[in-house]
Design brief:
Layout (H helix, E strand, L loop, with lengths): L21 E6 L3 H6 L6 E6 L4 E8 L2 H6 L6 E6 L5 E7 L14 E5 L5 E8 L6 E6 L4 E6 L11 E6 L6 E8 L3 H6 L4 E5 L6 H19 L12
Antiparallel strand pairs: 1-2, 1-12, 2-3, 3-4, 4-5, 5-6, 6-7, 7-8, 8-9, 9-10, 10-11, 11-12
Length: about 230
């Protein structure tokens, strides 16, 4: 893939995102987790729509938080380019995942390069539907993400629409793809696709990548033997 490495204002390592409007995220199968039931740190391959590898993501972990906090665990997700350089860091604090506690909702911070925030994804309280606000590095609202009332669709995709701030226009989507009946029942290995405008700010593309990981953990990651969360 030809990459422009001199683009002004593009954080190092995000040049890959300039030329794409679709990302595929494939969680890697963990044998120990599937067979023995012990939660293990998540790892993901991140490809473009042609299947070319763009990034690789690995979760920092501790055994205690993995197996005591389950899907609500705080995490740091490190995203590496094809040279092994860390280019994006995602930080999720420990927060309540109950919609009855609107004062302590989910959030994730996206850094690119590590240590430099480029945006945030903040859960917005709603009694029936998953909703998030996407913010830039100045914590200014940029986009909305709105999911379905029921995050379960046997045999089909589950779409979280990326919308304009007034929610009048759909500009993209984060889709949880059906992985097959065996994987869906026996594992929490998930596959996602993210679609966004080609000319979207490259930092916002990175922030939407972070939003995908937050959505995965909130709705599709098993915890304490539960798989998956069917309703908001």
């Amino acid at each position: 893939m030809a990459i422009n490495t001199t683009s002004y204002g593009v954080p190092p390592g995000l040049e890959y995102l300039l030329q794409i409007d679709h990302i595929l995220i494939q969680q890697q199968f963990e044998f120990v987790e599937a067979i023995l039931g012990f939660e293990t740190a998540n790892q993901y391959k991140i490809n473009d729509k042609l299947g070319q590898k763009v990034y690789y993501a690995a979760e920092d972990f501790s055994f205690l938080t993995l197996n005591c906090c389950g899907a609500i665990r705080p995490f740091t997700m490190r995203i590496f380019d094809n040279t092994g350089r860390e280019v994006i860091t995602l930080r999720r604090p420990l927060r309540c995942d109950c919609c009855c506690c609107p004062c302590c909702l989910q959030k994730i911070e996206i850094e690119a390069p590590p240590g430099v925030p480029v945006g945030y994804v903040i859960q917005t309280w709603h009694p029936c539907r998953p909703k998030f606000t996407v913010q830039n590095e100045e914590k200014q609202d940029v986009l909305k993400i709105i999911g379905p009332i029921c995050v379960c669709n046997i045999g089909g995709s589950i779409d979280f629409e990326i919308k304009s701030l007034d929610e009048g226009f759909v500009v993209g989507r984060i889709s949880k793809h059906w992985s097959g009946i065996v994987k869906e029942i026996l594992t929490d290995v998930d596959c996602f696709g993210i679609q966004f405008p080609l000319d979207l700010d490259v930092k916002m593309k990175a922030v939407l990548l972070g939003a995908c990981f937050l959505i995965d953990f909130m709705f599709f990651e098993s915890g304490g033997g539960q798989r998956p969360k069917l309703f908001w």
